[in-house]
Design a protein that fits this description.
By secondary structure, the chain is of the alpha+beta class. The protein has two domains: 56 residues, no CATH class; 85 residues, Glutaredoxin, CATH 3.40.30.10. Helix content is 46%, strand content 11%. The chain has a four-stranded mixed sheet, covered by helices on one side. Strand 3 and strand 4 form a beta hairpin. Helix 3 crosses helix 4. The longest helix has 17 residues. It is globular and about 50 Å long. The two termini are 34 Å apart.
């Protein structure tokens, strides 16, 4: 018998769970896998004894849930009001140019992904980005370019 998957391990924590636990389960599945795959969503539906359409309906309603894997460096660019006023559009444009992808995509090598978020909640540091949960304050387009270059150099020095 094969070892339990990450999703199976999450679901073990929700024995006898009802449909009111759907969102916490989806959050835990995403935390474990980095995103919610179709097979994972189907397992959740079966576990809660609800239609898969209910799981997909809830998961697609909330923008916190992702359906594609993110890169090793998951770059979240805040586009809230404070960040917008302070120039986050230029930061996003530079990020897309430097990586050759659009927001919502992941580079072919799986290293980088860009996600636009409505507000990170650090308005006093605008414009703000988060890379794998680490905040970077008062980011300019040039600062973003240098940051991405540093990540690429780190990957190259690791022999990748």
């Amino acid at each position: 018998m094969s070892a339990p998957s990450k999703v199976d391990k999450v679901l073990e924590n929700y024995n006898f769970a009802k449909r009111d636990k759907l969102i916490p389960i989806l959050q835990d599945v995403q935390a474990a896998d980095g995103y919610i795959s179709k097979p994972a969503a189907l397992k959740v539906a079966k576990h809660l004894n609800i239609p898969a359409s209910k799981v997909f309906g809830v998961a697609t309603f909330y923008n916190q849930f992702r359906f594609k894997p993110v890169g090793k460096y998951h770059i979240m660019i805040c586009r809230g009001t404070a960040c917008h006023v302070k120039g986050s559009a230029a930061v996003l444009k530079m990020c897309e140019e430097v990586l050759g992808i659009k927001a919502g995509d992941t580079t072919r090598d799986g290293l980088f992904s860009i996600e636009v978020v409505a507000c990170i909640g650090a308005c006093g540091l605008a414009p703000v980005i988060s890379v794998n949960g680490e905040f970077h304050a008062k980011v300019t387009a040039d600062k973003l370019r240098r940051l991405v270059e540093d990540f690429k150099k780190a990957e190259n020095s690791n022999g990748k």
